Amino acid sequence: MGPSNIFPPSASLKYSMVVLAILFAVVLIFPEQALAKNAGITRHYKFNIKMQNVTRLCQTKSIVTVNGQFPGPRILAREGDRLLIKVVNHVKYNMTLHWHGIRQLRSGWADGPAYITQCPIQTGRSYVYNFTVTGQRGTLFWHAHISWLRATVYGPIVILPKKHVPYPFPQPFKEVPIIFGEWWKTDTEKMISQALKTGAAPNVSDAYTINGLPGPSYNCSAKDTFKLKVKPGKTYLLRMINAALNDELFISIANHTVTVVETDAVYVKPFKTKVVLITPGQTTNVLLKVKSKAPSANFLITARPYATGPAAFDNTTTAGILEYEQSASSASKNKTRKLTLLKPTLPRFNDTNFATKFSNQIRSLATAKFPANVPKKVDRRFFFTVGLGLNPCPKNQTCQGPNNTMLASSINNVSFVQPNVSLLQAHFFNKSKGVYTTDFPANPPFKFNYTGTPPKNLMVSSGTKVAALPFNSKVEVVMQDTSIIAAENHPLHLHGFNFFVVGQGFGNFDPNKDPAKFNLVDPAERNTVGVPSGGWVAIRFLADNPGVWFMHCHLEVHTSWGLKMAWLVMDGKGPKQKLQPPPSDLPKC
């Protein structure tokens, strides 16, 4: 007997109406719980910060890790999920973690940059990073955000679309995170501390790594090689992340073409390429459709730097191996002969022409489902010079920068001085006096030929200055590289927002001619963009996220020298436009 016969028709109708009434009441009383099905789930992670002995390049050293893993564990979530990540610090260093590219809507306390949104987690202490992934899906990463600890403290973040929502590209057979890093034989904390005392540039790295492994081009490293094993005819989604400290990277797979489908966790118009360029702080998802029949060869996956300045850089190449699963018959044939190992061709280390062409191909989908909500009108305009400079040598000290000075870097000639309490706390509790000022210059202190002959005085000024923005301001920032000391490509990262890359060019930005060429239709939407060497880039964003948001060069050496600033976005009028109070376990300075 079917369930419809349990009640007579009238009773069944009454029963249905009672059930509907109860459900309606539940939705009214508990709207959050009723909607929770669509709002995602809560995922818990525990990150123990601990030392671990790791051997690379014939040498064992003790490194800072999460849970003893290098690289660190993958964070997996779906769009709409809430993450609770408990970080317990068991090492001698102060620690903070940053969830790079996560918008952190009204949850700035969980953003992570030391002394910007929080005091660090001290030895023996813990902190729970609590945030919800809103309106984002794709590949991002997490890393330490204090001193140079991100050299070994990093890992992937994979945000899947909501359940039953497909990718806007063919469903891959398998997804593989590929995270590029940089390895030093020396202790990086001692190294940067020494460099900041003497004013010299710190040592360059000894190797690059793929998923923590240097690969066969380095001493003792053939056994430490990343291998990507593939089945003929299948399509793989490679989630590429550049977690290196100081180097942009060209990446290629011998005899294979990939299709770029996403950058910085934003879908893009697909385009094919043999070489991918990723700056530190950027992520790029590519589809790799492998050959339909297993060839009698293996293929190197290589990465080496794109370097534009005259400074020394690590000019080595990391390599992994793409291996095809062989059929039984070809496997027995190949047992007797060694498979050929094919190498890709990478651009020259200073190939700015390729870099420009590559970045110009990145365009938003700009569809009804994935719109490019670029601000068409602007109410706050900023023109930032970004680049290097000098600080005078302290009295009674010899310095190793040019002519007994100390190397520095700045935005609009302000080299940022890190405070000793968190800017976000000072803002929230109205205790900014003596911590920061809100007079960050909207323009350089004086005009000069930015990419031509530098001015005579190369000294920077210093200060802890922020730029204040009313809630929902439509902001345009033009970032202009300078030739002071040297022109160089600077990957600038903005916390708390994605921005649209509306224009870029070489030479000095022309405010009369260049804006006419801006792309306001389908510009790339990113969280990190390379300011071209000897050129400029223009970005726009909507300041819809109250809090204090760090903006800095993602070349760690330049951040250490002061190429950083912060935006202070005021609260809006509505209840959902205000920064929430800090959590009770927020670390103390």
From TrEMBL:
Q: Keywords of this protein's UniProt record, alphabetized?
A: Apoplast, Copper, Glycoprotein, Lignin degradation, Metal-binding, Oxidoreductase, Repeat, Secreted, Signal
Catalysed reaction, written as an equation: 4 hydroquinone + O2 = 4 benzosemiquinone + 2 H2O
Enzyme group, top EC level? oxidoreductase
Phylogenetic placement of the source organism? Eukaryota, Viridiplantae, Streptophyta, Embryophyta, Tracheophyta
Q: Cofactor(s) for this protein? A: Cu cation
> Any idea which GO molecular function terms this record carries?
copper ion binding; hydroquinone:oxygen oxidoreductase activity
Coiled-coil intervals = none
Q: One short Pfam family name for this protein? A: Cu-oxidase
- Function in brief: Lignin degradation and detoxification of lignin-derived products.
Q: Which CDD domains match?
A: CuRO_1_LCC_plant (cd13849), CuRO_2_LCC_plant (cd13875), CuRO_3_LCC_plant (cd13897)
The listed locations are: Secreted, Extracellular space, Apoplast
One GO term of the cellular component aspect? Answer: apoplast
Q: What is its EC number?
A: 1.10.3.2
Domain Plastocyanin-like stretches: 49-163, 175-326, 440-571
The text of the family note is: Belongs to the multicopper oxidase family.
Record-linked SUPFAM superfamilies: Cupredoxins
Task: List the protein's name.
Answer: Laccase
